[in-house]
Amino acid sequence: MFITDEKDHEYRFGDNGPKYLMKGPRMNFALVQFQPGQDFKAHFHNVMEENFYIIEGEIDIVVDGVVHHLTPGQFIHIEPHEVHYCINNYDKPVKMVSTLAPYQDVDKVEIDNYSY
Known about the structure:
Blueprint: E1 17-23, E2 28-34, E3 39-45, E4 49-56, E5 59-63, E6 66-70, E7 75-78, E8 84-87, E9 94-101, E10 108-110
Antiparallel strand pairs: 1-2, 2-9, 3-8, 3-10, 4-7, 4-9, 5-6, 5-8
């Protein structure tokens, strides 16, 4: 058992990207934030499934070429091998929870030149 506080962690890219509150041993748990116009490179996971739960703001999450517009209270589950891409096309920051399981130290495959 452990307890942590969001204030003790940083977003990967300063004001955006994932902020991991837990990495392993069985899952990852992160808060993810994107400012207006920001995105996260398209990728997929070989083993891990990924979930996003929208806390505030709006986000477009593209899964295998299909755009899903998500708003607060909505949840999306992404299976292994499904290519996904997140972009904030809106005028306010988006904040969401991300979980990845089962934990793998290296499991992300980035996609270059992704278009949807």
